Amino acid sequence: MTLTKSLVRLALATACLLLIPLVAMQFTKEVVWTLSDFVIMGALLFGAGLTYVLVSKLSTNGSYRLGVGVAVAAGLLLVWGNLAVGFIGSEDNPANLLYGAVLAVAGVGALVARFRPLGMARAMFAAALTQFAVPLVAALIWKPEVDLGMLYVLALNTIFAGIWVASGWLLRRAGRSALA
């Protein structure tokens, strides 16, 4: 498929996904999005899709493409969750800004690896470690109460770290099959 067709499909998919909250707003008062919410979410969805389209075209290996997809999905969910409700406390808690380090590690690592699968796998494993370290660093800096909220944060970060590990495993598998 050509890049133009991919971009048109991506734009249509983004528009269709944005119709969900728009329609929901017509039927319930619990969904309240502003124009900026639609713009930000549209940019996130289109940007994530564009990243996947461009990077996945670098290889025909199924494990590579799936690994890239999992990494892009993890990044999208990380940003969306932090913007919507925040992982540590509310979305206004400055500790949530530390999650930018996870995206930086994954993105810079992929660039340094020049999008080769084994190097990207190492970057995703590093992103998993960074993901797990964020609440620990936040706890050292802001010294929150240790309660069920902290357990929730640790559990959520463990799940996200697992997603980054899954991406790394798929990319490592793609790299090893290329060597064979």
UniProtKB/TrEMBL annotation:
The chain crosses the membrane at residues 35-55, 67-89, 95-113, 125-142, 148-171. It comes from the Bacteria. Keywords: Membrane, Transmembrane, Transmembrane helix. This is DUF308 domain-containing protein. It comes from Hymenobacter bucti. The lineage of its organism: Bacteria, Pseudomonadati, Bacteroidota, Cytophagia, Cytophagales.
